[in-house]
Amino acid sequence: MGTLALTAEERINVPPAAVFDLFGTGNAGWVFDAACDRVEVGAVITLRAPLDGAAAAPVDILGRISKVRRPGRIEITHDQPWRGRLRLRFDPDGAGTRVRLNAEIDERGLEWLIRRRGHVLADRADQAGPRIGLLTSKSGPGSVFAAATDNVATMTVDEINADGGILGKPATLMVGDDGTNPDTGVAEAWRLVRGGCRTIFATTTSATFAEVSEALRGADVLLVHAVMNEGGLADRLRIQLGERPGHQLAAAAKPLMREAGGNRWFLAGNDYNWPRHAHTAARSVLPHQGAKLVGERFAPLGSQDFSPVIDAILASGADVVLSTFVGADAAAFERQCHAMGVRERCRTLALAIDESTMERIGPAASTGIYGASAYFQRLPSDQNKALVRRYRDGYGPWAPPLSTLSETVHEALHMWVAAVHSARTTEPDAVARQMRSGAFDFPRGNVAMDGPGKPHQRLYLAEAVHGELEPKFAL
Q: Which regions of 137-261 does DSSP assign to beta strands (E)?
């Protein structure tokens, strides 16, 4: 199947040159709600396109500007919620402008739109090899941190198949979108199970993972939570990888206080289980590191205005903000912090910050942000450089960057393959037993498993430098 094209248009009572110059300013209702810091090749952009019918909510597109022809043409290459291109034309229409949007929709994109409308698609014909499920966030606030995940998983499965497949048979990757919503995640997980997936890799919020874990309790399906999480759900068929907030805080607290020149911490994050657990860990860990807690606030996932939280931060006299916002919320929060003067007062340790989110924050607003994770795209190891090179060769210069929230699925898949080959079966229970122990050499370094929920790995402290996360030292 090739690509289809969908179109949408808006009319503005302003000449084309003026509309073009104001494109991306982010004003609600102005030219597909497009938001970008600059209209030039390479700039990241978010827009909302009415591609799913007039009665449906617009589709949020995350991508990069790949071509510009002032004042009449802009091309956007995007990976979320599917891989494709958008073309915008700014044409004269009397005294105003007609902005026409043309979107390329590939097979995965068409399937995503059909499922978004609530329709059930028939499963494809059976494949010779095993089916592997990927449950990720191709839409909703989590789509920012999950931007590269589908690409990485697809690349990894292709490489595994090129290297002989799974027990001599090619594997098929099936992808589900939780929409950053636990109920949707449960429905998509069941779809993957019905499609033949006996193992599902989840790169979602912990709220989705918890709901899916409970819903599939009797389904004899192995669930692997690949991204950072609070732990506590690992068992016979539940493997939890990634960083733990308590470990991140214990390692990073003292270096951050030295950077900030003070020990007063304010806790701020999204209101769901991972941030709340992270704050509980902070109240336990930080005082032992010499920190003083001076305030705490939460905001619902999907918030747009963080000024009440930021006002509280400024009033507290904090030296360090512990941010547990994720995805689009993290980007919006940090940009608003910059605009309201927080950067002039204190540093921020953002536990879930990643390279894709950093792009959405932008260089100007990112100064003073630090992250503590086991992987950053700029890690200098030869193995990581080779991974990044293969990724760029496969997906091009405008694909979203790798991060600890996407690269981890590459490692999780290889852990699973090693376990399958050791067990000589894809049966979930036998594979899970093999995954619960062992040591692996990955782009992030050595990862050793001590049970289903105890990964041991080195953490790195990274500082935002010119809009990129630069690892400063190992913790």
A: 172-177, 197-202, 222-225, 238-240
